[in-house]
Amino acid sequence: MEFTLNGQDRTFDGDPGQELLAYLRDVAGLKSPKDGCSGEGICGCCTVLVDGKARLSCRMAVKDVAGRTVTTVEGLSPEERDAFADAFVLKGGVQCGFCTPGIVMKAASLLRKNPGPTREEIRDGLNGNLCRCTGYKKVIDSVACAAEALREGRPVAFPGGTGAVGTRHPKYTAREAVLGERVFVGDMVEPGMVYGALRFSDHPRARVLRVDTTEALQVEGVLAVLTARDIKGRRVNGMIYRDWPVMVLEGEETRCIGDVLASVAASTEEAARAAAGLVRVEYEVLPPVTDIFEALEPGAPQLTDHGNVLSVTEVRLGDAEGALRTAAHVTRQRYTTQRIEHAFLEPEAALAVPWTKDGEAGVKIFDGGQGGYEDRRQIAELLDLPERLVNVVLVQNGGAFGGKEDLMGQHHAAMLCLATGRPVMLRFDRKTSLRTHAKRHPIVMDYELGCDAEGRLVALVARMHSDSGAYASVGMKVIERAVAHSAGAYAIPNVHVKGTAVITNNAPCGAMRGFGANQAAFGIESSVDELCALGGFDRWQFRWDNALTEGKATATGQVLRSGVGVRACLEALEGRFRAAKYAGLAAGIKNTGIGCGMPDSGMAKIEILGPQKVVLHHGWCEMGQGAHNMALQTLVTETGIDPAVIEVRVETDAETRCGMTTASRGTSLVGNSVREAARGLKADLAAGLTLADLAGRTYRGEWVCDWTTKVGQEPPEGREIVTHYSYGYAAQLVELDGAGRITRVTAAHDAGRIMNPTLFEGQIEGSLHMGLGYAITEDFPYRDGWPVSWKMADLGILRTRDMPELDVIGVEVPDAHGPYGAKGVGEIGLVPTAPAVANALRQFDGVRRTALPLRELRLLGRGK
Ligand code: FES
């Protein structure tokens, strides 16, 4: 059959039923259409034009385009390409960029029909395209900007600027992302590349009696089938506790449906997946333990050697129970939050290639994860190789939000690469992604909060139980963070909070944006509003009066010494709060840095290659949030180097060690380490040397915080409790109209120093989108150890039409340790959102909601 692709005639004599998206990507080599939902047709990442109309290429076969014209981003006119690329860069409509080419194609079809759309028309036109990063506001701004440029036949005008900290410097490689030219791991192709696939457990809990690879090995194209017996090194892995088996051995019990029993490498992805399905497994099926309270019963099956409790965190300040007994007003309530899925639009992918270092054989891994050095450590242990023979290149990924911290496919790709001697691509489809990576913890929280007759908080007693699922991941840290943030942004003199992380046969739960602080915020902020109702207190004033300030202590007993911006955030909202018909208010706090007795550190290396090329190495993952900009803009600020000559790289061979990109610490640690690295370069430039003179030189820098205190432990003699070296602060206001629909969310955030206003706003707007979803629709329920639904459509991710007006207010109360005073903003954007929504509804109809998600679609204007 024949058709036209991007203006060129094509003849196709393959399988006419082949999915058009697969053809475009794998045969035609066009990488702008992305596969985000594995054919479900709900994400829009694969949107192309067919005869000028926007169509989902994952829902079409090649035969459907016989005699027709197909256009991808690569085939748009030069004017359209420039307009979209420049507009998205200027307006900040691109973060991770995975959704962007699909959105551009939808927008192109819209603008060809209607060159002057209103914002509402753009919003409605893009409703079929999901974006997990931006909150859509800047996407709509970008399309409006592109439309204007195209209508007026002129380029998008950039204001220019130095690229220094504080400027709206364009996001690093954003233009390439818009045009689909910046490759994600799953887009990569290597000569001789083969494909990997995994065989998962058929049961959440079962003893594995036999794993038989005979049939799988007979599939044409199969090169290797590996089981747990083939692992040379450390088979059981994990970021903190080593409890997560790379593959389950015969004789062991599976603990969740994401457990891997075998891996396959084959010449095609189809052959690898087919062979994985032919690995035969015999089991003794056991009843799964799926309820946290049943798991804690004395007679419950014990899922680990140490029982079903992963960890317990407890904090005590004063006499909380005693203070509650004498409090003038006390609210007691159980609050529950749900498991949700990260739903980053790029499913996990890893490419492992044979690699040599100083003549010794190793492996290089193009990795879409969140921590190159952590991944390298675990992969080297698994392969029984020294770390120097494992080189992890962190490729900018298509969103992560904490869900790409644990190893998912990187280690399997590496094993298969060594077994076959070939480059191995291992890409997860959406179902595999849902099946494997750790989720946000459901937490059951029993809150008791009391205040005196004047409205001063006097005591908090709380019990928290999280479903941490099958493996530790960072579950003990999440419950620790929930406990540490249990008092929210308030100073409470008497606190007794205990959190227990429970092991079950459900999906492992781990890091997700907010990391326990969101759940705690729902408990404390709902409780604060209930106290205000009991005592007749003004909700804004009560918060302002009880807010953390310098000299007051958090729930862990850390006395904050400087840079506390809670009151400034509340003050930014007071006018709107007073004017709103139905206003929901919530404050928030979120740590910057892991802290809690663990070191936070980062390294940077500046390589001067010549006057036109400076390579800036750091260790942090760019997942859309802007880590590369933070590094680059810091270097520009310190040295005045032209940002256009700076290339940013993350590769473990550069030995710029750091941990996971987590805990809102990237800006802080990359900024401080680049500043340290820039010292020598700055001095050399000040001495009159040029980049040409300095070609061949490298400069290194490191910044370490090793003075934090484990939660619940006393600090060393003579030192204060420092749970975290820095915190971000926020307050948010959700306004409802007379029909109970959210009309606007105003988010005031103390970022310490706003390093890049466009990226700052983007982080908060994207967080608000995620926070509103968390509040109202998002859920990933399990039954008997299995997801109730495998559909991405059922995850409850909000679309363009669901989004209210978003207004971000930047507050800058400088931090003592952050670069230029900066605090982390990656997570706090959704910490106050869900309770602010619930508190708005409480004003609307007087009913206190205690469980997330609220499932009240009228909030979104979707009927009742
Ligand atoms: Fe849209 Fe990341 S920028 S999904």
UniProtKB/TrEMBL annotation:
Signal peptide: none annotated. PROSITE patterns: 2FE2S_FER_2. Residues 1-76 form the 2Fe-2S ferredoxin-type domain. It holds the Pfam family Ald_Xan_dh_C. One of its GO terms (molecular function) is iron-sulfur cluster binding. It comes from the Bacteria. Belongs to the xanthine dehydrogenase family. This is Selenium-dependent xanthine dehydrogenase.
